[in-house]
Give the backbone structure.
Amino acid sequence: MNPNQVLGEENPFEAMHARFDLAANKLGLDQGLYRILRTPDRELTVAIPIVMDDGSIEVFTGYRVQHSLARGPAKGGIRFDKNVTLDEVRALAAWMTWKCAVVNVPFGGGKGGVVCDPTKLSMGELERITRRYTASILDIIGPDRDVPAPDMGTAPQVMAWIMDTYSMHVRQASTAVVTGKPVGLGGSLGRIEATGRGLMLCTREALKVMELDPAQCTAAVQGAGNVGQVTASYLDGMNIKVQAISDITGALVNEKGLDVKAVREHLARFRTLEGYDEGDRLSNAELLEMPVDILVPAATENVITSRNAENIKAKLLVEGANGPVTAAADRILENNNVFVVPDILANAGGVTVSYFEWVQDRMGYFWGQEEVNERLEGIMVRAFNDVVDMAKRFEVSNRIAAYLLGIDRVAKITKMRGVYA
Ligand code: NAD
């Protein structure tokens, strides 16, 4: 068994399946379709040998999983993290399938990962890993096949290297092979902020449903990466008092509200919250249990489990990370009437603007920031309302409603396409 393998409640693939089974059952999904949609379409594991800066050779492991290609090319990020496992990538790929269907963009679901610690690699090592990984998965990616994007541990520069490696192999500049690229290299305006912007829009819509005034609300954000930082800024911009933000080193807390701009300036300079001296320090576990109105887990999976769900005090949970809540914790949050905006809806702003980027690359014509933001708002608000309506119609949680919506859309298309033999 892989030593990284996680069993039980915290295995993300099992967590995905637990929700999938519940939703499939509610939908009365045909047994054949159930079997098709439960199984990833394709999984590739590659060895990535790299000459390190000191001249030694290391071999890293990389994965790319395409869960479904029914609605279009696979779409999903690439994660560089030391804890990446195949089951995690499988779960993330499936979540991408449902997410793309929830926001109704014409993509299937995929995900990639490389088992490495990007914080311990030089830029040269990072570039060599990215290029070798891209070359190894080259046959299954492409603008009409599978379009990667950033995820934990990868940023626009990594996307630029993927675009360049792919383009060198196909002998033409192919910007649409990957999204989340730097603006100027086929990237879209608004992509960096898109996931956080989508989270802000979901927060705004949820507060309306809950009849809460943003200016009277407090929030805590776990994670100070792309998603966490941008979300904290947008919440601050809505006059919500952001009392805490964290990174892997722990949480920074100020009951009077953090100066989010100053925290971000510190992060831009030092890449860590350590050394920022305004406010108190708590652990990541303590941040989750703070008495705030809004909690945004935006770091990694399995942070809310059956062990701590009972202690969550927030009324509204907006999931920036993928899979931050386990299936066992779902039931506890539901019993405690926590309004959950599930990951496959809440963080779908990123894939939505990735879709815009892919469209713009293929047209060779680029939109202004306002056009991107307006289109994003239209899609996110519609998806939010679709999920809330579905939850009412089927008398289920928002999470299961989002699965119902996504699975139903993918199942209909899969049925229409039929089984090729
Ligand atoms: P990132 O690498 O930019 O930032 C991750 C942040 O989480 C960092 O502050 C890091 O220190 C912190 N962190 C990592 N492990 C942690 C742990 N165990 N406990 C506490 N903090 C930890 O990543 P990101 O792009 O912001 O992605 C964060 C989450 O959002 C991931 O689950 C990712 O799948 C999801 N997501 C990202 C996007 C996107 O557009 N980037 C889109 C949708 C979903």
Remarks:
- The longest helix spans residues 369-394.
- Residues 150-153, 195, 222-228, 246-248, 284, 298-300, 320-322, 347, 350 surround nicotinamide-adenine-dinucleotide (CB under 6 Å).
- The chain has a mean pLDDT of 96.
- The first strand starts at residue 42 and ends at 51.
